Amino acid sequence: MKLELKGITKSFGSLVANDHIDLVVEPGEIHSLLGENGAGKSTLMNVLYGLYEPTSGEILVDGKPVRFAGPGDAMAAGIGMVHQHFMLVPVFTVAENVALGRESTGFAGILDLEQTRTKIREISAEYGFNVDPDAVVEDLPVGVQQRVEIIKALVRDAHVLILDEPTAVLTPQETDELMNIMRQLKAGGTSIVFISHKLREVKAISDRITVIRRGKVVGSAEPSASTTDLASMMVGRSVSLSLDKAPAQPGAEIFRVRNLTVMSDVGTRLLDDVSFSVATGEILAVAGVQGNGQTELTEAVLGLHKHVRGSVTLDGHELVGRSVRQVLDAGVGFVPEDRTADGLVGSFSIAENLVLDLYGKKEFSRGSMMNRSAIAEHAARKVEEFDVRTPSARAAADTLSGGNQQKVVLARELSRPLKLFIASQPTRGVDVGSIEFLHKRIVAERDKGTPVIIVSTELDEVLELADRIAVLYAGRLMGIVPGKSSRDLLGLMMAGLTAEEATVQLSTIPTSEGEPS
């Protein structure tokens, strides 16, 4: 099936998310849509899938114009979509999820799932999915849940399959498995639109690459194109993708976590007896698939969780039991994983956001009154130092791009002497050019002698920044390994093996000569 988008424009009020986009997906090809977060990739695919109606332009299937009033029309035309956030009912079985929306009933109106089970088994056998139709979805690993989403599309005879940032929640091994599945689908004649911002994966799987920047197609490329060239197309200028980082010079281990356990309000163990230390002058990166205790770890250190057991000490002083204000005053700088919800007040000016945790200092206040001139002078210095792209520090924070918002958060947290710096998902939703700048500032803080903890689900970022890597799985620490450890080792640890178990397993994998590696 050949798919064509001609002049697709989608506007939300004055915001033009897609601007006259042309795209052709040939039968049986993997066509990657590459662009930064916010470039308009997902909006375009939501138009194609019938979730949005285009402001202008047309969609053609095998040369014939079509209009989709909703996803049902798109599916009827042979287009399926696997969303970044899965559209599954956790308490339903695989068969029930697959049948949802196209249920068939037998005698007395009883739901008949046997045909669905048969189809799931056939597709699983054909592609090696190994999915049990009667398994409950919430009991399945994330990678298997993604296969369920793919099965849903294939059961509905999808000839074009849209995968929206499909590797965001996968381990490296699961990513490799997904790419093998994509190749099998392609061999069977299915076309795939692969939406991603990850250059390594796009180069590995694509037949063709279309690059979108700020809602417009800015060019196309072959998978043989260099990552530097692709990054430059995404950003619109030359960028460096490698970080010039000198070896760490670790000193005393002044930050210690001992037997840290975090419980939910209903008694679920979110973090399970975690212990580690961080020295001055080093970066410890915490890796793992999202949802394995990383958020709870940082929030426990900050004093944001009520049900915490164990010990967290900084320079010999206990932090467990202290308020957030007391933890910050103890010298902890913190970049939260969701800057819009927890890092900034969007309606406040950039200048005001730069003193959110500093406004009580004498230089910024006179009694109960804010010292506006001092705040403005401080903002002017930080805007220049951190290269915040804005016409004025008086502009509201929510008028900035994601990368510039993150620069404001980082500037604020690094504006005071720190004994510990924690950055959670420091470059999520940030453009490639800003990533380069943010990474350099994080390394500069390490080189000042500050212990640094980075929490990231981006394995490239972990390997780029880390001096040591701690891996969390299901709230447990699988081990701490050197910063230059292999992706295979980290992937096995992210899937639940200890560092020792993963090392042993890798040592038994035959090399190309047939001997253990």
UniProtKB/TrEMBL annotation:
Topological relation to the membrane, as annotated: Peripheral membrane protein
GO CC list: plasma membrane
Residue intervals of the ABC transporter domain: 3-239, 255-499
InterPro entries, A to Z: AAA+_ATPase (IPR003593), ABC_carbohydrate_import_ATPase (IPR050107), ABC_transporter-like_ATP-bd (IPR003439), ABC_transporter-like_CS (IPR017871), P-loop_NTPase (IPR027417)
Location, primary (coarse class): membrane
Keywords, in A-Z order: ATP-binding, Cell membrane, Membrane, Nucleotide-binding, Repeat, Translocase, Transport
Gene Ontology MF terms: ATP binding; ATP hydrolysis activity
Location(s), subcellular: Cell membrane
Name of this chain's protein: ABC transporter ATP-binding protein
Organism annotation: Arthrobacter terrae
